[in-house]
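Structure first, sequence second, as always.
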């Protein structure tokens, strides 16, 4: 596949908006926590790297990816919250639930973003194997958490 070795964490920060006064919510699924913790750290570090203040980043966990939507809504409903980043890992094969979970989260997160008119970022890693998920957290495909944070910053500059 042509994109097999693409590192998703490569990005151009030259046009990033000032996020020094922006508030971010991180919603992190505890399912596959060893990986979601790495995604969360990637997102957190990326926000700090580009000017966010640590005290303006609110990290909350939810049991599994299915709960990301409601967790996002809990944070997005606050007027002072500027963007919400949802992070989870769903491994196909581990569960027949995967399609239901992924579709529900994709639709739910979209609705929350539209309802509150602010970026709600879909940082859900969906793979066939655990190894592929790790590749997207700290491997050859970068870190999806970094990518999700970059997406949030880009949308705040829209
Ligand atoms: C139940 C379940 C299963 C089977 N697989 C995953 C998964 O791969 N990744 C994930 O984040 N969560 C999974 N869950 C948990 C659901 O997301 C949810 O937490 C429960 O169904 C309770 O609503």
């Amino acid at each position: 596949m042509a994109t097999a070795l693409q590192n998703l964490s490569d990005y151009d920060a030259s046009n990033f908006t000032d996020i020094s006064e922006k508030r971010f919510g991180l919603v992190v699924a505890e399912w596959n926590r060893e990986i979601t913790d790495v995604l969360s750290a990637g997102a957190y570090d990326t926000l700090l790297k580009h000017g966010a203040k640590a005290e303006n980043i609110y990290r909350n966990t939810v049991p599994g990816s299915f709960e990301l939507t409601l967790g996002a809504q809990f944070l997005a409903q606050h007027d002072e919250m500027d963007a919400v980043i949802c992070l989870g890992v769903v491994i196909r094969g581990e569960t027949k639930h995967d399609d239901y979970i992924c579709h529900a989260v994709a639709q739910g997160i979209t609705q929350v973003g539209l309802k509150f008119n602010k970026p709600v970022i879909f940082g859900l890693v969906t793979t066939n194997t655990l190894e592929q998920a790790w590749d997207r957290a700290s491997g050859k495909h970068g870190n999806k958490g970094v990518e999700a944070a970059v997406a949030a910053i880009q949308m705040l500059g829209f």
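Margin note: Helices lie at 33-49, 68-76, 98-116, 130-138, 144-156.
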